Amino acid sequence: MTERTCVVYGASELVVGPANDDEDEGPLETIENGAFAAVGDEVVAVGTTDEIVREYPPENADVAVDADGNAVVPGFVDPHTHAVFAGDRSDEFEAKLRGKSYQEILEDGGGILRTVRATREASDETLLENLLGHLDAMLARGTTTVEVKSGYGLDTETELRLLEAIDRADEAHPVDLVPTFLGAHAVPEGESTDDYVDRVVDDQLPAVESQGIAEFCDVFCEEGVFDVEQSRRVLEAGLEAGLTPKVHAEEFTRLGGAELAADLAAASADHLLHATDEDVEAMRAADVVPVLLPGTAFGLGADYADARAFLEAGWPVAVATDFNPNCHSRSMGFVQTLSCVEMGMTPAEALRASTSAAARALDRDDGTGTLGVGAPADAVVLEAPSYAHIAYRFDTPAVDTVLKGGEVVR
Ligand code: NIG
Ligand code: FE
């Protein structure tokens, strides 16, 4: 059987990926009047439209997409979401508008704990259906790879059910899912934190390991949730179970999660609103990718992370939606808008943060988040002449056609 062939041509500009690792050279390599060809799932050639259509005539390709003077960019990679849950917390949005804090809501048994109650009660089918609906919304906004965390079960049975839903959605949906175990997301009601950490380490992690779905282990390292030592215990046990660490770090307070991430050579440390210069240095030295989540700050009316501190240290940041019931956004385009307007990033930096840098936060080194030769043929044809329109337009996504593995999926 011959493999499917695909050619995407006529792009006003084709964004291939990072220009190089030298920030001074500008963060993106683009080709004017660009095109790419793919065989099977993989990009096999990138160049100008003239070059590519000569070698790969569109009339002979199984899939031919004329970008018709619009820009083509790599599919977005969303490296931090909590997209599998049940229930509704829109009333908490109103409570927050009236001045109640995120932590006060959690202390009163709301927030994460409320989603845990609704999630435990939901059937497997409901959880899967909810997740697939969110993936549809993400794909329509140009996301082709998304990390999804468990963490609304907080008991072995439900945590495994959530990871199972992620696995089934990965099978059923064109978007690629990257599963993360987040048993240490909150402390269940009526339980002491140390006792719960014991349960995560002694009960949940061995079960997660034998289930064999999760790839990463994450922890909410925060005042009033898991302190640095408790977080370390969870992540070290995760490492023993074969899971790469990730950390929710320095979101509301500077507790030391970023240093912990550096110490354990985590794939990423995420949030980082209160990260210090020392944290930036420690993370850079240990190759920990900073994942910034401006949608969360936007929703909470909080200050934003200092993206420029990382960028000026020569450390490309990643950005993510953090989609969860407290941050109801499934749009990497809107994240790019916030990255520019609120965190002082350029549209090119924001796009890199949403593609190749985001793939690094997920340990993907197969070219995901780029359209270089050998990369997965995941691409977005914009309905706009340049990639700047992604961040520039914040009412509707500037997305026309989405390709996943060389097939048109949207
Ligand atoms: O990354 N901070 C912890 N976890 C999520 C919020 C989850 C929730 O509120 O349901 C976050 O923002
Ligand atoms: Fe999160």
User: What compounds are bound to the protein?
Assistant: N-(iminomethyl)-L-glutamic acid, fe (iii) ion
**Sheet with most strands:** 8 strands, parallel
Number of strands: 16
**Distance N to C terminus:** 26 Å
Mean pLDDT: 97
Tell me the number of helical segments per DSSP (H or I, 4 or more residues long): 16
* Structural class designation: alpha/beta
What is the CA-based Rg, rounded? Answer: 21 Å
Could you name the ranges where pLDDT drops below 50 across 5 or more consecutive residues?
none
Tell the overall outline. globular
Strand order of the largest sheet: 6-7-8-9-10-11-12-13
Oligomer: single chain
- Percent helix range: 25-40%
Give the strand content: 15-25%
Short description:
The protein has 410 residues and is an alpha/beta fold. The chain has helices at 49-55, 90-97, 102-107, 112-121, 124-140, 156-172, 193-211, 228-240, 257-263, 277-285, 294-300, 307-312, 332-343, 347-353, 356-361, 388-392; strands spanning 5-17, 29-39, 42-48, 63-66, 72-74, 76-78, 143-149, 176-184, 216-219, 244-249, 268-271, 289-292, 318-319, 379-382, 399-404, 407-408.
Structure characterization notes:
- The chain is an alpha/beta fold and 410 residues long.
- Helices cover 38% and strands 22% of the residues.
- It contains 16 helices and 16 strands.
- It has helices at 49-55, 90-97, 102-107, 112-121, 124-140, 156-172, 193-211, 228-240, 257-263, 277-285, 294-300, 307-312, 332-343, 347-353, 356-361, 388-392; strands at residues 5-17, 29-39, 42-48, 63-66, 72-74, 76-78, 143-149, 176-184, 216-219, 244-249, 268-271, 289-292, 318-319, 379-382, 399-404, 407-408.
- Strands 6-7-8-9-10-11-12-13 form an 8-stranded parallel beta sheet. A 4-stranded mixed beta sheet has the order 3-2-1-4. A 4-stranded antiparallel beta sheet has the order 5-14-15-16, with no helix packed on it.
- Helix 5 (124-140) packs across helix 6, helix 6 crosses helix 7 (193-211) and helix 9 (257-263) packs parallel to helix 10.
- The protein is globular.
- The protein starts with a strand and ends with a strand.
- The mean pLDDT is 97.
- It binds N-(iminomethyl)-L-glutamic acid and fe (iii) ion (FE).
